[in-house]
Design goal:
Layout: H1 13-23, H2 33-45, E1 49-52, E2 58-62, E3 74-79, E4 101-104, E5 107-110, H3 117-131, E6 140-145, H4 153-157, E7 167-170, E8 178-183, E9 185-194, E10 197-198, E11 203-210, H5 217-220, H6 228-240, E12 244-253, E13 261-269, H7 272-289, E14 298-303, E15 310-311, H8 313-325, E16 329-331, E17 343-352, E18 356-365, H9 368-384, E19 388-395, H10 405-418, E20 423-427, H11 433-439, E21 444-447, E22 452-453, E23 461-463, H12 464-501
Parallel strand pairs: 3-6, 3-7, 7-21, 8-20
Antiparallel strand pairs: 1-2, 2-6, 4-5, 5-23, 9-18, 9-19, 10-15, 11-13, 11-14, 12-13, 12-17, 16-17, 17-18, 22-23
């Protein structure tokens, strides 16, 4: 790779150089072959054991440092793929173009695209540890998975017999000073509202709602981030109070909280000036209502030509009312933990097929009793308004472990380095560790990550000081795992010698 690096004044330099290297390689989901080849060549050039499977998952192993060769191994894990999201005025091609990095003080971001800190930070940290010659560590296994962002598919397909470790540090959940010891269960529902149509009469428009921050459900529902899908149908609800507006089609295929939504509408009865006045009033109202969480929402109607038929009034009104009233956001049934989200629901996708409008919603819950109640509420709601529940899938999470030596070592190491206790809790996001726990139940796992915000959006940005602190934490954890095991072995040997003397 190129030696012309942007970041030259931060330590460890290798950490940033590896991050810049992988940022030059296009690596969106389903396009991971090139980054996997980079990883294979990295391992081969250093004489490290390496395995790559047909999906382009890569496992690299490094022998323990001097005196630690026979200690139990430890697995580090992260994914190489990234979400492709860009600003509306960006011409970036994620399949061919490198990520253009921008440094602003302590912030690293990209030029109008996702940065890929999720989960490029994990990749860079593992490469730095594998490359460091004077690192004190037990035998080290580093797994770089693919297709995490579309359903953990790389981890699901990986041959777990290749892994010797029974203790693992995941690097894709949490943040600097926050460790995860479990993940929520997800209830995913697809529901359809059959559409009835008639000839379009009146002018047609594209109603565009954008400017929202969006982002991951688990991280950003607690921040009161709002959904562009919900706001679209809120605006349509207020338009319908004053005029006859019909939906033609509506589209948003999002991964997290929808940050934009496009809807084709027909003004069947009413004045364009009045429509724009109502939309402007709603925009200002929402900006005031969500001044701290989403102050930059934009709502506007642009005239377009559309040859499709519009929905009948009854059908269009039912669609508008359904989405406007559909449950969204956080639920909490623990008064002693009011600052924690126990359960939440969002609509991630809405799309128009020839026969129906379909929505895809996700409930994320720490405890199934809360998820079951909200699931029943959602099903009852959509059925009452004439929707058909087409599918419901249960994506089982990873349950909290009461006893976890790897977690204890992580906590101890963090306190040693930074003089304060880390937060330990459950993640509302999905990550590959769920797959490992289901396939290797005895695996002792904990996760953490550098602090990066607004991931899965063009506003994604990384706090570089957190990147460095998490890396140094991993160095200390590996050192402590080596020391603790050596001390345990020494005590065992002394006990055996004493027993022989008695």
């Amino acid at each position: 790779m190129s030696n012309d690096y942007l970041i030259k004044d931060r330590e460890p330099q290798a950490l940033y150089h590896f991050f810049e290297d992988i940022s030059r390689i296009p690596r969106i989901t389903f396009h991971e072959k090139e980054i996997s080849q980079y990883l294979v060549e990295f391992a081969e050039s250093r004489g490290l054991w390496c395995y790559r499977d047909r999906m382009y998952n890569v496992l690299i192993k490094k022998k323990g440092s001097a005196g630690c060769e026979n200690l139990p191994p430890v697995l580090l894990e992260g994914h190489v793929d990234m979400v492709a999201a860009k600003a509306g005025d960006s011409d970036h091609n994620f399949e061919t173009d490198p990520i253009e990095l921008i440094v602003e003080g302590n912030i690293l971001r990209a030029n109008k695209t996702t940065l890929g800190a999720d989960n490029g930070c994990a990749v860079a940290m593992m490469l730095t540890l594998l490359d460091k010659e004077d690192l004190v560590h037990p035998p080290l296994e580093c797994l770089f998975t693919v297709q995490e962002e579309t359903g953990l598919d790389g981890a699901k397909a990986f041959d777990m017999s290749k892994i010797d470790s029974r203790r693992m540090i995941g690097l894709d959940a949490g943040s600097e000073g926050v460790f995860r010891m479990g993940t929520t269960t997800k209830i995913q529902m697809t529901a359809a509202l059959k559409t009835e149509r008639e000839e379009t009469k009146g002018k047609t428009y594209e109603l565009l709602v954008d400017g929202l921050r969006g982002g991951d459900q688990g991280a950003n529902v607690p921040k009161e981030r709002i959904s562009a899908i919900k706001m679209t149908f809120r605006a349509l609800h207020y338009l319908n109070q004053d005029m006859d507006v019909r939906v033609i089609s509506t589209e948003k295929l999002g991964k997290g909280i929808p940050e934009d939504c496009r809807t084709r509408i027909c003004l069947a009865d009413g004045e364009e000036a009045r429509m724009n006045e109502i939309l402007e009033r709603q925009q200002q109202c929402i900006r005031r209502e969500y001044a701290e969480s989403d102050p930059d929402i934009r709502i506007r109607a642009v005239p377009v030509q559309d040859g499709q038929k519009m929905m009948t009034k009854e059908c269009s009104d039912n669609l508008i009312n359904s989405i406007y009233l559909m449950p969204y956001g956080a639920r909490n049934r623990k008064p002693c933990k009011l600052d924690e989200v126990r359960c939440s629901v969002i609509m991630k996708k809405i799309y128009t097929d020839p026969d129906a409008v379909r929505i895809f919603s996700v409930i994320s819950t720490e405890e199934m009793i809360h998820g079951d109640v909200l699931d029943e509420e959602m099903r009852t709601f959509v059925r009452t308004l004439g929707w058909e529940v087409e599918s419901v899938e249960l994506d089982k999470g990873w349950d909290w472990e009461a006893v976890s030596p790897i977690r204890d070592t992580m906590v101890k190491s963090y306190v040693e380095l930074y003089g304060k206790e880390p937060v330990v809790n459950i993640s509302h996001g999905g990550n590959d560790c769920v797959v490992f726990k289901h396939k290797i139940p005895e695996m002792d796992m904990v996760t953490t990550a550098a602090t990066y915000e607004d991931y899965h959006t063009p506003n994604e940005h990384l706090y570089m000081d957190s990147f460095e602190r998490v890396y140094y934490l991993l160095e200390r954890v590996l050192f402590n795992l080596s020391e603790e095991q050596t001390e345990t072995d020494s005590v065992r040997e002394m006990s055996q010698e004493c027993a022989g003397l008695v």
